[in-house]
Amino acid sequence: MSIFQKSLLTLSAAALTLTALLVVSVLAFMNFLYYETNARLLRETAAAFLAANGEARTAEWLSENRDGGSNSAAPFLPAGSFRLTLIDRAGNVRFDSHVQGALVNHLDREEVRAALAGMEGRARRDSLSTGMRQLYAAFPVRDAGGAVAGVFRLSFAVPSFWRRIAPAALPFLCLAGIFGAGAFLAVFLFSRSLAASVNHLVHIAEDAGRGPWKSEGTEAPEAARTGAAEFIMLEKALRGMTAELTVRIERARAEGRRLEAILDGMAEAVFALDGKLSLVMVNPRARELFGLADGTGLPLLEAARSTELENAARNVLASGLPEETEITLHGAGTARRFQVFAAPLLSPAAEPRRADGSGEPEGIVMVLQDITRLVRLEQVRKDFVANVSHELRTPIQLVKGFSETLLDAPPEDAERLRHFMEIIRKNAVTMENLTNDLLILANLEDRNASRPDREEQEIAPLFAEAAAPAAFLAEQKQTEIVVDCPPLRARVYGSLVVQALINLLDNAIKYSPPASRVEAAARVEDGDLVITVRDRGIGIPAEHLERIFERFYRVDRAHSRAAGGTGLGLAIVHHIALLHNGTATAESHAGEGSVFTLRLPR
Fold this sequence. Notes:
Layout: H1 3-53, H2 55-64, E1 83-88, E2 93-96, H3 110-116, E3 121-126, E4 133-142, E5 148-157, H4 161-210, H5 229-239, H6 241-265, E6 269-274, E7 279-282, H7 284-290, H8 300-304, H9 307-319, E8 323-331, E9 334-345, E10 363-370, H10 372-408, H11 414-445, E11 455-458, H12 460-476, E12 480-484, E13 489-492, H13 494-510, E14 517-525, E15 528-534, H14 557-562, H15 569-579, E16 583-589, E17 593-601
Parallel strand pairs: 12-14
Antiparallel strand pairs: 1-2, 1-5, 3-4, 4-5, 6-7, 6-10, 8-9, 9-10, 11-13, 14-15, 15-17, 16-17
């Protein structure tokens, strides 16, 4: 079936259906309006009759004729063609203006029941007495006491609505036929125009298969301009499709080159495998990782030399579902940890995989991310937590133990009590120092922490500020602090430099023998500010120098704890140097003392 035939039949059926619905709806509304108008007229007439002749008078008549009465004895008769019926409370007809003789009980009539209930009643039905379609309006008749004594009902015969409009049916049907014919003609013209426009576009599409179009400077033929504007626009769009497809193909090629550049620049190793787990594509990072010149065509096991990686690939190939795992690759005396993400690789023409994962994927794509540094950082974090817990355990236990001793059995000796309290105080100070050092270290590691800007300032006052708090400890050990700082200026965090000097001087004094000498000096070397602190103490064995700036690292743990150290002082110095983009180093020989050096760019 052609588009012309299909649109003509469909739209014609729709037009005829709408026409029929419109005619039926208008007739139904007119029928409703016809009966509603007559019913309102009857109600108003009945109310007027009842009011004119007196409701009390009618109620009195019904009471007097409870045992029956003649029509001539009725209180009044309505004028015209209206039918009057008087009904008592039991539903018996006491008077009917159009029917002589006894009538059936009317208690089952809906309008009578409504009136006996004290409301106005309305109904429309064929009368059993007269055999004609009647409209009924019934009103309750109340006596002097307000009780319902009976029913006043007025009705009249209504001709059928269809009989009333029969004389006008022929003109109405003619008008409907003219309307339908006009609609059919409009549908016919529209369908023919639609078919012509579509056929023209079909010819253009056929021309497309025979040769390329030129999208620029092409005008629509005059035959097509008689169609709708949308078809003209569609024709122009079709004529430009070849050029647009060419542009899209070039863009796809450029996108492919960009994706290749992205893969080449990725820090992760990326490669693709076929269904036999042979390499079909590797990026430069993968070639560097596995030492491959090209790599394509090699089996995965031969290229990667890792059974863990091959097992991960086989699992994805078997299940058809993505998988993420971690593996360790060994090579050149090192072990590196990688996070591997593998996913099935399907071609665009491949059918979608079923929900149960059945079917074979075309290949696999794998991405390897080096997480060795993250693993090491995680281990550092765990070590840090363990070290903090270890450092806090002893002072907490001592504070708890001596506190419980004082609470359970306080010594009577004041000197012994003072000794216990001194132990508690000393361990509380140890925990406070540890907490303060941890906060300082955390602040130094946070590059986004708020701190005063680096300012260019004199270095000598910073040495004097740092030497002041160290003087008390030096006096106790009879240690001499010698400061050699010529007039120098540098752009530094002044308070942090003071903190580093305090930590270095404190360490130098604690690990120096009594009556020794600690030297602090500053100089400019190769444009850098170089700060050194030298002691004549016990020195640091060579095997410990590389780790001396780590958190909680102690060469002599017993001596460090006895001296009240937290194990974080040199770590703080190291991070202060890093914050200045500088370095912190140590040079020492066992038994000859140590030299700690801060090198800060000016």
